[in-house]
Every structure is written in structure tokens, then in C-alpha cells.
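Subject: sequence -> C-alpha cells, single chain

Hey, anyone have a minute? Need the predicted structure for the following. Not urgent.
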Amino acid sequence: MPKTVQFDTLGGPDVLHFVDKTVPPPQEGEVQIAVKAAGLNRAELLFIAGQYLIEPVLPSGAGVEGAGEIVAVGPEVKEFSVGDRVAITPGFDQLKYLTLGEIVNMTTSALEPVPEAVSYIDAAGFWMAFGTAFGLLVQKGGLTKGTGQAVVVNAASSSVGMAALQIIKAHGGKSIAITRTDNKVAALKEAGADHVIVTENEDVVARIMQITDGRGFDIACDVVMGTGATTLAAAAGTDATLVAYGLLSGEVPALPFEAMIRRGLTVTGFHLVWQLLDHPARRAAAVAHLSGGLARGDDRPVIDKVFPFDQVADAYRHMASNAQLGKILVEMNT
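Reply:
Had a minute. Here:
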């Protein structure tokens, strides 16, 4: 019988356990997928702890992205067939569907085809990272090819941060990666960062102004927020944009009013599902751009570590340790 990850109480990775679960036939608008790999995200840690924007209904499953092979199709499904290789994007009802299971049903609206040359591991770790990075930088932040914009990436060693470095380079921008310690400087430069700022021993604002010859950044993306976002705003250039896409600090910062008035700083937010996947035109533009890059090999997720499915709790503990550089995944044996 297929195994599924479940949690019955709120907490950390220790509350996760496996249950043997019979998966019913897919309904109208659904397919059934033998999951080969699933990408893990910090949003799931918050969801499992009851601290996410969506409150889990216990007992609950988890997981918002993955990849696998379709083994059954529901009534009236025309666009997919048994045997198709598909990626599961996060564009589904998290209280109804999950990806951390050996066999899962999934709405077809969340699926994207996986090119034959792309592995299930790469496909499972691609859409959350690159969809988020493309949406917040290009569609929200205004990243434009050929303009040489200075772009700050906070928490740059995350999977989204690593994807952002690739997208900035492809658009001809200047990337400024921010990290907490010296440990990841070399890896971030190897991943494409033009400059790296280490917050524990450098003045972030002074370094950004130095790097940009006093002009300040054009775009900043921040998943941490808190007091650091208010500090970061002081390095904004004229008509700059700061895009918030998370709140890992747990602290909502004060509005950077001075930078907004003096420099015309725009502060906005981004969520992959609500700001991109739920909007057909934005989704179509992002998919057209990113699926081509994935198929050609121009865009690839940076993989930190792949855990066996039965070690999913250990995978989340590794994520919670902040030691990662890129994407953490689990691989099924199905």
C-alpha cells in the first residue's frame, strides 16, 4: 500500500510520520501520479507548525511540489495521459492535495510537462524556486534585459535565491547576494553572484552603496524581512522596488517611509500561487520563459541534498539548520 507523510499534531519535523493510505481513483479534472521526487520548502515547516498563511486541518498531509509519472486519469481529462511525465507546481489547494506520498491524486491545473531530457529530481525542484524568482524579479520587480540593474538577493543561498542569481545573470543585471556568514561566500560566487555581502561582519548599506557607486539598488528581494528590511531600504536607489516574499524573521518591519518619500521606493509583496499561478496571463508568460530554459538546460535548480523518502523528517531538520545551499528534495523508490 502506498505510503503518505502525515502529521496529527502541530510542531517540527518530529511530528511527521508515515501512514499506509489507499488512494481513490482520480476524479474529474484530476490525475493519479506515482511520485518520483518531491521538493521541500520552508513554507512546509511553517505549515506543519501551524504558522503559515494557511492553517492545516489535522490530520494533514504536506508537500507542495514534486514530479512523477501519471498512472491514471480522471473523467474528462484530455490534456494528460497515462505514462506522461509531469511536474507538480504549487498551484493547488493545500488542504485538498499533497505531494509527499508515493501515489497521489492531483488537479491537472497544477501540472506542467517534464521534458524527456530533464530528470525527475530537477523537475521536482524547479517550479517553486524558478517560478518565485521569475515572478518576484521580472513580473513584480521590473527586472529588464539589457539595463544592467543592481539587484539585491537576501537569503541568497536558498533555492529561490540561487534561482534568482541565474535569472539576474540571464537578464544582464548585477547581482548582490546577502548571506549571514562567510561559509557560503565561495559557493554563492560560483553560483553566479557578482558580489556577496556577509551580514555578520559587513555594513550592508555601505557595501551596497559602494558596489553601486552610490546609486543604490534597483531591485531587492527579501524573504526574511524584519528590522533588516528597514535597514536594506536605506540602500534603495531612485524609484527602486523592494519585493517581500516571506517573513522568516517572524517580525513585520516598520514601513520604510523615508526611503519611500525621498527615493520613491516601492515596497510590494509576492506569492507564487496568489500572484502568479492564479493569474492565467502571468502564469503563461512565466511558463513560456521558464519551461524553455528548463528544456534547454539553461535553467537548473541547484541541488543541495537528496534524501530517501523514508528520511523526510531528517530532510526537514537539515532545512531548519540553515546549512543548505540550494534545493533539498526527497526521492521515492516507486
